[in-house]
Amino acid sequence: MGTERLKSDLTHESTSKETELDEIRGHYQRRLRALEDQLDDLQSANSTLLKENRVLEARARQFDISRQSFEFSGGQYRRELRRVQALLADTQAVLAHERECAPSQLLLLIKLQDEVDALQQQIKEANCGREKESEALRKARKENVQLQETIGELEKRHLDSEHKKKASNVEIDRLEEANKILTAELKLAQRRIDSLQLALSEGLEGEDSDEENEDCHALEDGRSAG
User: Fold this and answer.
1) Distance CA 146, CA 59 (A)
2) What is the span of the domain harbouring residue 99?
3) Region Disordered: start and end of each range (predicted)?
4) How deeply is 222 buried, as exposed, middle or buried, from its count of CB atoms within 10 A (0-12, 13-18, 19+)?
5) Count of C-beta atoms within a 10 Å radius of residue 75
6) Which CATH number characterizes residue 6's domain?
7) Please, how many CA atoms are within 13 Å of residue 33, restricted to the half-sphere of its CB?
8) Mind listing the pLDDT tens digit for each residue in 98-118?
């Protein structure tokens, strides 16, 4: 009876241990799959951020080219304005001189006045063009600042994604190592159970042999007594 009970207890302990180990291994495997899914999501998000970053960098380069073009155009307008202003000053000086020296040269004065009017119109047009170019340049600079801020935010998100990816890889490595240790413990427990079952089996066989020997001795003693 004691042997049967010991055998039953060992079998129950073996079953409980295997069930517990299966539950632990299943828990770690579920966590491992969840982390692998999370890693895939992070890699996908990282790829999307990289694509967006490349697009925004291309736009930034385009804005920089446009800004340089606007600055170049603004310089041309300023040089043209200075040239026209210098011509206007010269013409006004000539006109004043002619009014003082030759009041009779009315036709020349009219011609010079027409030139002055034309130069003033050119100055007006140059100022208008310069204002438009300046406004366009201000808008381009503002958009460039916003774009740089967006790129900075994307770079920060990319860095955060890389940190999360690295942490997930570390956790996966840790779980894989824990799974290896758990598997080794399971194998060790299984070998212990097999050893106990073998010892139990050998013990039972020894007891059966002893009982048979005792029966034989009793039978021989009975025959001798008869």
Assistant:
1) 11
2) 2-217
3) 1-21, 202-226
4) exposed
5) 11
6) 1.10.287
7) 5
8) 556 655 555 666 676 777 777
H or E element that contains 103? none
Count other Cβ atoms within 10 Å, centred on residue 111: 12
Residue type, 119: L
- Of the candidates 80, 63, 28, the residue with the CA atom closest to the CA atom of residue 147: 63
Please check whether residue 26 lies inside any domain of the structure. yes
Residue 216 pLDDT > 60: no
Length of the chain in terms of residues written: 226
Angle at 43 between CA 42 and CA 47, to 5 degrees: 115
Residue range 26-36, pLDDT digits in tens: 776 787 787 77
Mark 176-199 as b/e (b = at least 16 C-beta within 10 Å). Answer: eeebeeeeeebeebeeebeebeee
Instruction: Give dist(CA 76, CA 84) in Å, integer.
Output: 12
